[in-house]
């Protein structure tokens, strides 16, 4: 099964009347950036109007039709915020201080010379694209905050604030009902190495891919939030340490089968998962302490070489968790779905529901001897999934 995603690299617009200069700069950055070229300021301006994917502009100053100063003025005066806030790098001579001062006054972001090296140029471009992305995300977050949205507009996951608020609610509920609440912290192994080798944009795509996998794997009652680049937290109500460990192992298997391609290079990733679980009987454990325990266990897993699931007893052995093939479900949540008319969402989870209820059903049969078909309930026969219904993230090949 394949899952092809053609996601473009960050686009840089190079504006210079010298074709040799454009080719030279393009050669320096083409491994990490998509390049669009324009032969003068007027052509560059038209490109900005029609191409919203441009994230950085590199412009010469002396050009026909419209020079670099004129292009800068138009960009900064634009009523389109995506254009007005674009980083603009000016190509200038090392000793041309007057030109630099004038360009800076008109809103130039940075300056380069025509003989700049590859490492320095790509570093500057990555820093500027990261700054531009952070600015956009901040504005989106402010808008989401103003609307009271619990969803982070960049990752599509729960915001940290919502995770904390909702997590404290779940912890209070677990205490009232003497129930369970588990926390997982998931870290992409070698994330700094991926960042160094492939750059910011590719690691963001890897980050986004893991976000999608997590969103599709967790139950509806679970909450997922991104803590930092390459690091995620999951809160699992009504789940003990064994059920959470089983979920973490399934997640590891799905990620192990994931292959991403970037310009004919295969990228694989592994994750280390730290797990902590609390119960209603532990009244002194706070949410931050619960997540903190999971963070500490991630660190110990990374120190041991990564690609591990670590709980309070150490590294999880898959052989010990055969009876926890799936996470237990929240019966309250299932009943709410049935009452709301969402039977189709419950039907596919009948094995999970029965697995959660089995101890109760066994007790009922033991006390009442009412002839419950326990063997059939332990091994329910459901329609076989078609290929299109199978897990879309198992064994996928994603093109970046």
Describe the structure.
There is one protein chain. This protein folds into three domains: 11-135, Rossmann fold (3-Layer(aba) Sandwich); 155-328, 2-Layer Sandwich (Alpha-Beta Plaits); 329-384, no CATH class. The chain has 14 helices and 14 strands. The radius of gyration is 27 Å and the shape is elongated. It has helices spanning 19-29, 41-50, 68-77, 81-84, 97-105, 118-147, 160-177, 191-217, 241-256, 287-303, 331-339, 343-347, 350-368, 374-378; strands spanning 11-15, 34-38, 54-60, 88-91, 110-112, 180-188, 223-228, 231-237, 259-262, 265-267, 271-279, 309-311, 314-315, 397-399. The chain has a six-stranded mixed beta sheet, with helices on both faces. The protein has a five-stranded parallel beta sheet with strand order 2-1-3-4-5, with helices on both faces. The chain is α/β, with parallel strands linked by helices and 400 residues long.
Averaged pLDDT: 80
CATH T-level fold name of the largest domain? Alpha-Beta Plaits
Strand content range: 15-25%
How many discrete structural domains? 3
Structural class: alpha/beta
**Radius of gyration in whole Å, from Cα?**
27 Å
**Shape summary:** elongated
Oligomer state equals single chain
Q: How many H/I helical runs? A: 14
Determine the CATH superfamily of the largest domain.
Reverse transcriptase/Diguanylate cyclase domain
Task: Give the strand order, joined by hyphens, for the main sheet.
Answer: 7-8-6-11-12-13
> Would you identify the CATH architecture of the largest domain?
2-Layer Sandwich
């Amino acid at each position: 099964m394949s899952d092809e995603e053609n996601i473009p690299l960050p686009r840089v617009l190079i504006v210079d009347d010298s074709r040799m200069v454009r080719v030279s700069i393009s050669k320096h950055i083409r491994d990490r950036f998509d390049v669009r070229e324009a032969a003068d300021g007027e052509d560059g301006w038209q490109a900005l109007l029609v191409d919203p994917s441009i994230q950085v502009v590199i412009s010469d100053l002396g050009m026909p039709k419209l020079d670099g100063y004129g292009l800068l003025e138009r960009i900064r005066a634009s009523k389109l915020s995506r254009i007005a806030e674009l980083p603009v790098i000016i190509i200038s001579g090392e000793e041309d201080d007057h030109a630099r001062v004038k360009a800076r006054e008109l809103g130039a972001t940075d300056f380069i010379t025509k003989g700049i090296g590859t490492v320095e140029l790509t570093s500057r471009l990555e820093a500027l694209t990261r700054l531009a992305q952070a600015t956009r995300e901040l504005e989106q977050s402010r808008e989401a905050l103003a609307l009271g949205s619990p969803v982070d507009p960049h990752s599509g996951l729960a915001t940290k604030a919502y995770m904390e608020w909702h997590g404290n609610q779940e912890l209070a509920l677990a205490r009232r009902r003497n129930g369970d609440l588990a926390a997982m912290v998931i870290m992409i192994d070698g994330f700094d190495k991926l960042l160094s080798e492939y750059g910011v944009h590719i690691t963001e795509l890897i980050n986004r891919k893991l976000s999608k996998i997590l969103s599709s794997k967790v139950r509806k009652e679970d909450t997922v939030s991104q803590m930092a680049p390459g690091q995620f937290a999951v809160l699992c109500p009504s789940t003990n340490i064994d059920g959470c460990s089983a979920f973490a192992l399934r997640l590891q298997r799905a990620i192990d089968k994931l292959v991403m391609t970037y310009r004919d290079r295969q990228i694989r990733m592994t994750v280390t998962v730290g797990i902590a679980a609390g119960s209603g009987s532990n009244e002194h454990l706070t949410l931050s302490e619960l997540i903190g325990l999971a963070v500490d266990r991630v660190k110990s897993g990374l120190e041991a070489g990564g690609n591990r699931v670590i709980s309070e007893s150490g590294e999880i052995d898959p052989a010990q968790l055969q009876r926890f093939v799936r996470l237990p479900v929240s019966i309250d949540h299932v009943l709410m779905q049935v009452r709301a008319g969402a039977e189709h969402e419950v039907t596919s989870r009948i094995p999970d529901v029965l697995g959660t209820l089995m101890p109760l059903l066994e007790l009922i049969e033991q006390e009442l001897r009412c002839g419950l078909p326990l063997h059939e309930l332990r091994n329910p026969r459901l329609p076989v999934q078609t290929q299109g219904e199978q897990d879309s993230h198992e064994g996928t090949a994603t093109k970046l």
